[in-house]
């Protein structure tokens, strides 16, 4: 078991599917269940099954409804955390999405707003809120799910890519602001990972979603979760600041 992680409290946004769910499982595996998890997403029903499974390993799990695109809801979420889950050691800002693959002029205003509200404003407010507690105890890890899309823009991805490059800029600055503390700020930038990401992107159309992963083997959500847990379990003096993780065929 990973001694560095044992007994810690991990908060994961977007834990109801894909990479977030895999990260929750990986933290439990790495600690043999000696861990506290706050699993948050909008679809609490989907969290229930995961919470039950992870609870069987001995992990203490708190499930919470959270829409990170709604600032007031973020405040409510933190205000209603049970006392034993309030001292967050690791925040994983994983909730995020791409909507559509349209040229800039054709993207609907509401999709632009939802991508920025979720991927950027939500991640920023979650980070700001958690930093306050981490500063008081002078420890903690913040893990941001960026993307290769934040480094290399592609046609049809103008808004999504802009959100992820905003995540990267914000994250770099926060890392530097915290340089004299024991708070670590890390970013994971995946290439293609097979999750519900493409289903969400294409409005629930399974045919279009499947096409994204044709002709090569994408990463699994677990591949990313393993990197997150590895990075968080380094000794305190080591920060894996940014991890670019591709399927071999995509690199
Ligand atoms: P999924 O669509 O499989 O999962 C996304 C998760 O985010 C779900 O649990 C969803 O839960 C949650 N979520 C969406 N909107 C909100 C919201 N407003 N508030 C709270 N939770 C929300 O996608 P992935 O697991 O693939 O994506 C996870 C992260 O990884 C994202 O930030 C994505 O941009 C990034 N990424 C993904 C890549 C890929 O190829 N899959 C590549 C690079 C980066 P619910 O709907 O229940 O709220």
From TrEMBL:
Signal peptide: none annotated. InterPro entries: NAD(P)-bd_dom_sf, Sc_DH/Rdtase_CS, SDR_fam. Gene3D superfamilies: NAD(P)-binding Rossmann-like Domain. Transmembrane segments: none annotated. Keywords: NADP, Oxidoreductase. Pfam families: adh_short. This is NAD(P)-binding protein. It comes from Ogataea haglerorum. The lineage of its organism: Eukaryota, Fungi, Dikarya, Ascomycota, Saccharomycotina.
């Amino acid at each position: 078991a990973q001694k560095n992680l044992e007994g810690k409290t991990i908060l994961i946004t977007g834990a109801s599917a894909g990479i977030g769910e895999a990260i929750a499982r990986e933290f439990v595996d790495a600690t043999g269940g000696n861990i506290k998890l706050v699993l948050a997403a909008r679809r609490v029903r989907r969290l229930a099954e995961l919470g039950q499974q992870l609870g069987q390993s001995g992990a203490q799990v708190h499930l919470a409804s959270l829409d990170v695109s709604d600032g007031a809801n973020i405040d409510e979420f933190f205000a209603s955390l049970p006392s034993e889950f309030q001292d967050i050691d690791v925040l994983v800002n994983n909730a995020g999405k791409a909507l559509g693959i349209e040229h800039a002029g054709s993207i609907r205003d509401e999709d632009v707003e939802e991508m920025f509200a979720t991927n950027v404003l939500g991640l920023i407010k979650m980070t700001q809120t958690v930093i306050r507690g981490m500063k008081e105890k002078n420890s903690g890890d913040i893990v941001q799910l960026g993307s290769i899309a934040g480094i290399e823009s592609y046609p049809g991805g103008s808004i999504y890519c802009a959100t992820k490059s905003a995540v990267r800029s914000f994250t770099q600055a926060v890392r530097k602001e915290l340089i004299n503390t024991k708070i670590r700020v890390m970013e994971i930038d995946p290439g293609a990972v097979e999750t519900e990401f493409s289903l969400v992107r294409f409005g629930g159309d399974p045919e279009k979603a499947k096409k994204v992963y044709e002709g090569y083997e994408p990463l699994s959500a677990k591949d990313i979760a393993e990197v997150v847990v590895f990075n968080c379990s380094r000794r305190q003096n080591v920060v894996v600041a940014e991890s670019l993780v591709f399927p071999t065929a995509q690199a």
